[in-house]
What we know:
By secondary structure, the protein is mostly helical. The protein has helices spanning 2-35, 42-47, 55-80, 88-108, 115-139, 146-151. The protein has 6 helices and no strands. The protein is elongated and about 55 Å long.
Amino acid sequence: MRTLYSGLAWTVAGAVVIQAAAIAFAFGGMLNLVAEGGVVDTALLESFQAGGVGELGFLIHGVVGGILIPLVALVLLVVSFFAGVRGARLWAAMTFALVVLQVTLGFSITDVPYLGLIHGANALAVVAAASIAALRAGRAHPAQPAATAAEGTRTDAVAA
Length: 160
């Protein structure tokens, strides 16, 4: 379960990197369209016609950010209860909460564009939380039973 937990956490972090690349591709394509004399207006956005080279980037950003990352973060939270890693539930919950905030900000940008500033910064927080979760699972010892911890014995002690 620890490997699954770690893999899910790395998937969240990696998917955010894909998000950044996709939105950069999308806006690069849009700027290219405008530089070549094209116009980005409501008619283009509502027509769902090819708006340039980077249009696929908007689709990738929407699907990965609106569906894939939230689902993986939710599964990470569920798996954290069975991973047997100290702090797994905390970091999975933080990752999930940041993802929920990220999705909320993403859907709110059209109404309040300044939220885009927080949306971009929060993406870095999602990567950080998911990476910490994955790293802790990769190097952490399994959580000790309460009786062993209470006796003060260590499971990693070297025998003399």
